[in-house]
Amino acid sequence: MRGIIPRAIQQVGVYKTNLEKDGWTYNMEVSFLEIYNETIKDLLRDGDHGEKPKHEIKVDSNGRRYVTELVMKDMDPNDEEQVESVMRQAAKHRSVASTDMNAVSSRSHSVFTLHLTANNKKLNQTLRGKLNLVDLAGSERIERSGATGQRQKEAVSINKSLSSLTTVFTAIGNKSSHVPFRDSKLTYLLQPSLSGDGKTLMMVNLSPTEESFGESLCSLRFASAVNKCELGKPKKSIEDNDEGSKSKGGEGRGRTTTTAAGARASSTRPGARSRTGAGGGTTPAKGGSRSRSSPSKLRTTLEKKSSRLAGR
Predict the structure, then answer these.
(1) Handedness of CA 60, 73, 23, 20 (dihedral sign)
(2) What distances in angstroms separate CA 31 from CA 46, 64, 74, 280, one per listed residue?
(3) How high does pLDDT run on average in the chain?
(4) What percent of the chain has pLDDT over 90?
(5) Contact at 8 Å (CB) between 113 and 29?
(6) Under a CB-based contact definition with an 8 Å cutoff, are residues 175 and 229 in contact?
(7) What is the pLDDT of residue 243?
(8) Strand partners, 34
């Protein structure tokens, strides 16, 4: 079964083909990384031989966020084999391990990014955009997963970064003057997507087992809280090629769309979160403090929203 990343890229290819008829030309590149124990690793690296470069999150003079020393691959969204090749390469490097509850448990968050630049000579305009597809490792109860040693360290790191994500959503939902994006690599990397420059969608995946009721309820409460977070209207970054200036609403950062997958859904049980090849998937991002709504109401609300999304 094809996952969200290949399907999303295929949809981008459809739009690309249609807009090329209006005079737009596109240049697309992709990167794929994982955040493992608060360390960024390149999933598109050629191999594990030799000294590995250190990857850091930086902001350039135009206010655009990027990760240093990442491999960037040219991408034709209409070339299915090219997309699958990227997924296979990333899967080889993704950090996974076995626990008592999951034979293939992701031990990191992954971020697939499509970097897009479009030019239109007739309009003398350049449009920049970015699509992030994020696969969040599930929160993990160590007493159930039986994690020890390195596995336990990974679980602690995963839970801590998810807690930082919750804190960010809470601050945004409360319209706080300070949002702690720098508390984790994940939130700092996704700051442009979570601070009004783009659209963010979040999907939470739950386990149907009775043993996972407590964790599933926690996930539903988290989803309800996130759904209350207003990120504001996304901005486009359109540059006038003649003057090098940006049109109204553009701030040089580019329009950013982020999709995150499996938020707070425990990775210690089957069916806890979606898988899209090497990882990547979904999650409407609007956050706040935890809701105390009943699980049945939360479940009904999420089912209605999922039905509306599926019908689009």
Answers:
(1) negative
(2) 13, 15, 9, 12
(3) 79
(4) 42
(5) no
(6) no
(7) 52
(8) 41, 110
For residues 72 and 231, the model is more confident at: 72
Residue type, 273: R
Dihedral pair phi/psi, residue 246, rounded to 5°: -105, 145
pLDDT level of residue 182 (50, 70, 90 thresholds): very high
- Rounded distance, CA 47 to CA 297, Å? 48
First-to-last C-alpha distance (Å) of the chain: 21
Range 240-249, long-range pairs (CB < 8 A, 24+ positions) = 240/124, 240/125, 241/119, 241/124, 241/125, 241/126, 242/124, 247/125
Question: Which one-letter amino acid corresponds to residue 142?
Answer: I
pTM score, two decimals?
0.76
Number of domains present in the structure of the chain: 1
Strands 198-203 and 255-261: parallel
Q: What is the pLDDT of residues 165-178, one digit of tens each?
A: 989 998 988 889 99
**pLDDT band at 274; cut points 50, 70, 90:** very low
How open is the CA angle 191-194-199, to the nearest 5 degrees? Answer: 130
| 8 Å CB contact between 274 and 136 | no
Task: Name residue 285's amino acid.
Answer: A
Apex 196 CA angle, 9 and 203, nearest 5: 50
* 201-253 pLDDT tens trace: 888 888 888 888 888 888 888 888 888 888 777 777 777 776 544 444 443 44
Domain containing 244 equals 4-310
CATH of the domain at 59: 3.40.850.10
User: Alpha-carbon Rg of the chain, whole angstroms?
Assistant: 19
In this structure, which amino acid lies at residue 144?
Answer: R
For the chain, the helix, strand and coil percentages under 3-state DSSP, each to the nearest 5: 35, 20, 45
Question: Both tokens of residue 163?
Answer: 């807690």
The DSSP letter of residue 77 is: T
